[in-house]
Amino acid sequence: MATTISDLVASNHILSSQGVLDNYGHVSARSPARSDRFLLSRSLAPGSVTSEDILEFDLDGTVVGGAAKRVYLERFIHSAIYRARPDVMAIVHSHSPTSITFSISKVPLRAVTHFGAFIGDRAAVFEGDPEGKNPTLLIANNELGTRLAAALGDNQMILIRGHGDVIVGPSVSIATTRALNAAKNAKVLLDGYRLGGEITSLTKDEDNALTKLEASDQEQREWTTLKKSVGGR
Ligand SMILES: [Zn+2]
What we know:
Layout: H1 2-17, E1 26-30, E2 37-41, E3 54-58, H2 75-84, E4 90-94, H3 97-103, E5 124-126, H4 142-152, E6 157-160, E7 164-169, H5 172-195, H6 204-213, H7 217-229
Helix pairs in contact: 1-5, 2-4, 3-5, 5-7
The structure holds zinc ion.
């Protein structure tokens, strides 16, 4: 449990310092002790999160032991995805500018780089204001969270129109590096469109082969370096 909490705190600081998380994004981890619970900070800017701020939630998005502190309005993103996806151990919800750009365009966000393979051939865009009934675009209730989880399906990333993205992974380290790499892949793709000409995406085989490499030593080396950079061990 202590390692998961320290990874979660480090992830908040890394993604905040790299500009992927703004003051309103969040990261969670499934509890290593109970698969029907997850860990998420109280409502706080990610750069300020410490281990004392981490709360435990059940899969309805309710704080275990009662909410003595303010909690994130969009915690239902996490609870619904953990319910729907037993393989998911960590979730990042960001308002990353590059993701928002693709979320408002008909041009698809797709994997064009080795480090962006997990995105696949087209990241879906979730409509957060179905039938004009949710004009804040926030995923602030269980119904919207459940719809978002269904739209994510078996994928690793989904965009939310005019709002941001959700990225999932089998560990805090991989979800974090995926969030960083999603932004890098999007920048390369945007530059490719500016350059002009035909864009070449990764093939399905390349996507699969590269996604398998994520859990390799190289990925761990990246995580260890990132964690040290924010004072973690
Ligand atoms: Zn949000």
